[in-house]
Amino acid sequence: MKKQYAVIDILKCICSLLVVAIHTAPLMDISADANFFVVQVVARLAVPFFFIISGYFVFTHINMTKSWSDPDNLAYIKTYLKRICRLYVLWTLLYLPLTVRDILQEGVSIAVILRYIRDFFLNGSYYHLWYLPGLVFAVPFVYYMLLRYGKRTTFFTVVILYVFGFFYNIFSPFLSDHLWIEWYGTLFKTTRNGLFLGSLFIFLGAVLAHCEELMDKKTCLLAGVVSFTAMVGEVYVWKGLGYMHDLASMYLCLAPTVFFLFQYILQTEVPYRPLYKSLRGMSTFIYVSHIFFVVLFNMLVPQWNALYIYIGVILSCGLCSYGIVRLSYRYPKLKVLY
Question: Which domain holds residue 284?
């Protein structure tokens, strides 16, 4: 199993670097078209992969033959959620200086404070941290649906939610005059959250965790490549129609692409090395901490082009994450950081 997990550890690290790319636009100063492809196409695979990996590992510990109220199942879910909540609260506190800076720049008001409280619970206390509250909602939601109503009902539920999320994510900036769009945006801001995006990929990970036999490896690769090609076409269709914007990330072809490629990855074996275990923690640390490094480099070397900023961020953030993970073997309390 370590060979199987080694590829997942590598994948998580690659995905964390893609998330950094989303927030630094590394090729913008070289080619806007190339940067668009990297950021709006390739990098949009990263968080869905994070979700499906989390769903896969969480549900390998769940006995699907028992009820949702089974004490052993609930004990594991509670332990998992407690760890994610602890990670989220800690990084919320660490980002408070940047949060305060942003609030002061915008101007302190009741509306701004209420918006921050809303975002803390729904959209992330700092904009890139939304994945953590997304997990906190999506994991128990899918767990309850699967064990209470079964695979078929859960499948249709999460697909319907994703399709709704897709329409809002892609089209809402151009439909702001519709009352329900304005109402939803005021209350919830986005559908890029655990309910509309995360639940589908957590479900897919859960299904694969208990799949008796995966699809043939070559078939998975072919289906994944075809799905990704279709996703590329979809993105450029939305771009050509004028619907592509910075926050667009929920594509119809995204789910099959991730589903098939993840099955291929599960069946890919590489020789296991101790470094891969470090990569697992490093990827999480890079994800949660990289905005600090982005802000730091933009302050210290604002004259650098975007590619240099990206390289500087991933090198410094990578070295820091490696040091934290290695030190945590000696000082286990540091594991709270990732």
Answer: 1-29+274-338
SS (H, E, C) 168-230: HHHHHHHCCCCHHHHHHHHHHCCCCCHHHHHHHHHHHHHHHHCCCCCCCHHHHHHHHHHHHHH
Are residue 165 and residue 231 in the same domain, yes or no? yes
Neighbours of 89 (CB within 10 A): 13
Residues near 335 by beta carbon (within 8 Å), at least 6 away in sequence: 281, 328
Q: Are residues 280 and 241 in the same domain?
A: no
Taking residue 42's Cβ as centre, other Cβ atoms within 10 Å add up to: 15
190: tokens are 């986005």
For residues 207 and 126, state if they share a domain. Answer: yes
Question: Of 251, 272, 293, at which residue does a domain stop?
Answer: 272
Cβ 90 vs Cβ 125: under 8 Å = no
| Structure token digits, residue 17 | 């670097």
Q: Name the DSSP letter for residue 88.
A: H
Would you say 208 and 261 are in contact if contact means Cβ atoms under 8 Å apart?
no
pLDDT(311) > 90: yes
| Residue 59 near residue 211, CB atoms below 8 Å | no
Domain final residue, candidates 272, 292, 321: 272
Single out the residue of 144, 333, 166 nearest to residue 247, CA to CA: 166
pLDDT digits (tens, 9 = 90+) for 82-132: 999 999 999 999 999 999 999 999 999 999 999 999 999 999 999 999 999
Number of domains in the chain: 2
